[in-house]
Amino acid sequence: xxxxxxxxxxxxxxxxxxxxxxxxxxxxxxxxxxxxxxxxxxxxxxxxxxxxxxxxxxxxxxxxxxxxxxxxxxxxxxxxxxxxxxxxxxxxxxxxxxxxxxxxxxxxxxxxxxxxxxxxxxxxxxxxxxxxxxxxxxxxxxxxxxxxxxxxxxxxxxxxxxxxxxxxxxxxxxxxxxxxxxxxxxxxxxxxxxxxxxxxxxxxxxxxxxxxxxxxxxxxxxxxxxxxxxxxxxxxxxxxxxxxxxxxxxxxxxxxxxxxxxxxxxxxxxxxxxxxxxxxxxxxxxxxxxxxxxxxxxxxxxxxxxxxxxxxxxxxxxxxxxxxxxxxxxxxxxxxxxxxxxxxxxxxxxxxxxxxxxxxxxxxxxxxxxxxxxxxxxxxxxxxxxxxxxxxxxxxxxxxxxxxxxxxxxxxxxxxxxxxxxxxxxx
Length: 427
Prior knowledge:
Elements: H1 6-17, H2 22-37, H3 42-53, H4 60-73, H5 77-88, H6 94-110, H7 113-130, H8 135-145, H9 156-165, H10 169-175, H11 177-198, H12 208-234, H13 239-257, H14 263-297, H15 299-310, H16 314-331, H17 334-351, H18 356-371, H19 378-387, H20 391-414, H21 417-426
């Protein structure tokens, strides 16, 4: 390995320790490498412009963000909340089930775990507390279910994974459907058990006429993700084109069906999208530059050679990766893991002949479980702050749910077809 690589590596971690954003830390570290090595700094511009901005897939990122902002501005959250309540009915622990179901439904509108926990999470937590649920449990279930968003399509995390790894964007989005459903189902299974044990309140009974009325009202919002998946399944659109179609559809239903979106709100959504997209795309650009340096240093090959000397079995390798990612997820945010750790693993993935789509799902689920696992557990911090609950209590309540998610992670790791059968059948 080129020893000069220590310069950008140390630079990046020092800057991150000083609370500098990861995007700036990686970009400055990349510049430090080129200055220290005497290489042409113009390569950075090439990597940013050629490898990133000419990528057709990257257009999906601002489109997904815009779709989420339009749906939020269109105030469809209440509609989806009522629909989820109607689906659960009189089951004991109804609002906890609604929390899990709504996170799956709303995932297609946000694609972000933090957005789910801090946005829709506020509505869910307050509703549960009013209904007699413990504040700690209400926040814990919100943190656990928020992990579904970045797995269920459309997912910005999966698009970024595709950008860094070269995997199919459409394949990854389709692959996320079944794992997200399994994650939601596992949490709802735990809710069913704990609700009976603690005698949590039952939900409201809806007549067939009321249920039909609520379903009809919610159907246009629910069709957003369906349009994206169907467009990918039929081959009519790429992931980017499907994102554009879904976004246009969101604007239409918000303005003309729900009539909750006007041009002023639309303009605010456009401005918010521009700011958020610029931040994410700059982060992707920085990651592209840093990935180039990793490749130049030979560090990824060194790691691959070391792992191959330890084991040639890809399933043992996946077990090692799971342990590493879960540990990292417990102590740091998902962004450094995605943008720094993933490039280091790509050569190893190729060496073990692991499907990139399968690994993308395993990687994403890993980082999501880490986001609600102590001692870092950023989703627990967010939900505890929103719900004004004791963080220690939230951590205690979330651990069994993390256990359920770990079971799903193991299944996804060692049964690749759980995530691959949809993209294999449809693409």
